[in-house]
Design goal:
This protein has 272 residues and is an all-beta fold. It folds into two domains: 124 residues, no CATH class; 71 residues, Immunoglobulin-like (Sandwich), CATH 2.60.40.10. It is built from one helix and 16 strands. Strands 1-4-5-9-8-7 form a six-stranded antiparallel beta barrel. A four-stranded antiparallel beta sheet has the order 12-11-14-15, with no helix packed on it. It is elongated. The chain starts with a helix and ends in a 5-residue tail after the last strand.
Length: 272
């Protein structure tokens, strides 16, 4: 928990950070995304399979009889011979190690007097290492975490540490994330509340819906990672470079954003 608090405090280099976790906010608070990051966390488990044996037997029996007669009397004699053959097959125990790489997306949002550290964990890539032949299998899974663009505004509702919601101020379906911790910001001085003469107006943002074939590509906006396809991101007006990569292949487009909503479909070239 202390490391998470220090991560939040790095955004307050020139201020005093109070490292204390605040209670969840169930009423909803207006927040703005100020930073994003991600990391890959490995998870491994070993699957054991017991050995077994198989025994197969086959055999045959031969009978021989003899009858002898002596006038009004006689005798009967006989023999029997049985042959049996058996064979056994043994299979040794095996073990397989399954390693799953979980991608953890971190999002830091800022309220009036609080910084919140949120996360979303998604399985992205798994490898199976076989103990017998050291083979390797890779599987890419579809992204399940939303992408949050720095500067976007949301309503944050925290129910508990595993259930928080970020709802776009323009409406839309709430995005579920995990609440990790929060820190209080220093009080704002009265001088900072004095209105400035030069007012900077915020740029109108455009909703950009990005999909790709195949799905699960990594989206980069002006060189910065913003999520995986399919995703919806808010982009300010102006000329921007969209890049979608998938297993070393990429799709790149330069788009001029003027407002409204835009749908981008990235058809990533297939490998040779």
């Amino acid at each position: 928990m202390l490391k998470r608090v220090l991560l939040v405090c790095t955004f307050l280099m020139s201020q005093v950070c109070v490292s204390a976790q605040l209670p969840p906010n169930k009423a909803g608070a207006s927040v703005e995304v100020v930073a994003t990051a991600f990391e890959y966390v490995p998870r491994s488990k070993t699957i054991s399979r017991p050995g077994h044996s198989l025994t197969s037997c086959q055999g045959d029996t031969s009978y021989f009889g003899q009858f002898q007669s002596y006038g009004s009397s006689g005798s009967v004699s006989g023999t029997a011979e049985t042959t049996t053959q058996c064979s056994s097959t043994f299979s040794l125990p095996t073990e397989s190690t399954v390693t799953t790489y979980l991608r953890v997306n971190y999002t830091i949002v800022r309220g009036d007097q609080t910084l919140y550290l949120l996360s979303c964990t998604q399985p992205t890539e798994s490898t199976v290492e076989r103990a017998r032949n050291n083979g390797l299998i890779s599987v890419l899974a579809r992204s399940t975490c939303p992408a949050f663009l720095i500067g976007s505004k949301y309503i944050l509702t925290v129910r508990n540490t595993s259930d928080a919601r970020l709802t776009d101020t323009n409406g839309g379906k709430p995005s579920k994330v995990e609440y990790l911790t929060s820190v209080a910001l220093p009080p704002v001085s009265p001088a900072a509340l004095v209105p400035r003469q030069n007012v900077i107006t915020t740029q109108e943002q455009t909703r950009v819906h990005i999909t790709s074939s195949p799905a699960g590509g990594e989206i980069y906006l002006d060189g910065k990672f913003v999520g995986n396809t399919p995703s919806e991101i808010a982009v300010p007006a102006g000329e921007h470079v969209f890049r979608v990569t998938f297993k070393g292949r990429e799709w790149v487009r330069t788009v001029r954003i003027t407002g409204g909503e835009i749908n981008l479909y990235a058809e990533i070239p297939q490998g040779n």
